[in-house]
Amino acid sequence: MAANDGSYRDRVAIITGGGAGIGAALSEELARRGARVVLADRDAAAVEAIAERIRSTQGVATAAVVDVTDAAAVEALVRTTIAEYGRIDILFNNAGIGCFGDVREFSIEQWRTIVDVNFWGCVHGSLAAYRWMAEHGGGQIVNTASLAGLVPVPGTVPYAAVKHAVVGFSLSLRAEAADQRVRVSVVCPGPVRSNFHDSMILPAAKPAPRQAPSDAEDTLAAACEILLGAEQNQPVIVFPARARRTWWKWRWFPSLLSSAHRNIVDSLRR
User: Fold this and answer.
1) pTM for the whole thing?
2) From 8, 85, 130, 159, active-site residue
3) Known catalytic membership, residue 130
């Protein structure tokens, strides 16, 4: 499934959430394929460690400490990247945070955090990059949503709501940006083995955090799926195959998911 390594050579890419998980894997794989990468994350030590690892293998990488909920900081990230490298070819809006619990028990502050990171972080990056790309010959924006942005998932109501919004935002922007030669894709992965589940927001009742299933995709495989989908300009990049099957079931036979939904709700009630 690997894309042609040369398709990313010398391209300038920003990856938010680049300090861990899919973001770190994307950064390392892009650099391996010859891209010049700018990794952005709130965790200064983590993002610098990934950038240093890339540089140690002769890759080109810059680390930036950025909170994607801060529109001015994201705008500055884009401007600084352009000043350093002369352009921006691809933006991966990958930063995100999950949640799990009974919707009645999440505070409004927790809702706001989930919306700010997952939705506004995506909007801030997309608008900053799109404005420049539209004026300078085009580019590509790849927004990370989730399978939960295509299929309802009880126990993750704030997250699922926001990821549905990311899908709608991305596909609408794709239609509007096409005549500006800016390509937009939205990534909707199923479970991936990363620190995502460890850092989920939990309600005050603090249920046991959700664990990634044992057959979850690893981060490198996820990164390769995303890069292939972006290279092919796929509108919606869904992986792995079981996630595509779940999406298909929901679109055509939603009752087939009733049992899975009941199991999740039962775990919440326990």
Assistant:
1) 0.93
2) 159
3) no
